Amino acid sequence: MSKKITGRKRDVNPRLKDRIENRKTKIWRTAFFVMLIIVSWAILSINFLPEQVSLTEGEIASDDYFYEGSTVTYVSEIRTEEARNEAAAGVEEQYIVDDTVLTNLLQEIDGYFDTVLQTASGDLSINELKAALPGEYTNEVLYSITGLSQEDITTIRDSFKRMVESIFEEGVLEKDIEDARQSIALAISASTISGNVELFLKSLNEGMDYPYNKVFDAVSTSQLTEEARENVSPVSVTVLNGEKLVSKGQMVTAEQVEALQALRLQSDNPILTPHIGLFILVVLCYLILYFYLKFYEKTIFKRKPAILLLGVVMVVILLICKLISLISFNMDTELTAQIGYLLPVTAASMVLTVLLDREVATVCTVILSIFVGVIMDGSMAFPLVALAGGLTGIITASRLNQRSQFVGASIYITLANLLVIGAWGLIWHQSYSAIGIGMLFGLINGLLSAILAMGILPYLESAFGITTVIRLLELSNSNHPLLKRLMMEAPGTYNHSILVGNLAEAAADAIGANTLLVRVASYYHDIGKLKRPHFYIENQRPGENPHDKLQPGLSAMIITSHTTDGAKMLREEHFPEEIINIVEQHHGNSVLKYFYNKAKEQAVDPDEVKIADYRYKGRRPQTKEAALVMLADSVQAAVQAINSQDSEQVKDKVFKVINSKMQEGQLADCPLTFKDLEVISQSFLMVLSGMNHQRINYPDSATEALTEGTADENKTENN
Question: What was the pLDDT predicted at 709?
Answer without folding.
Answer: 37
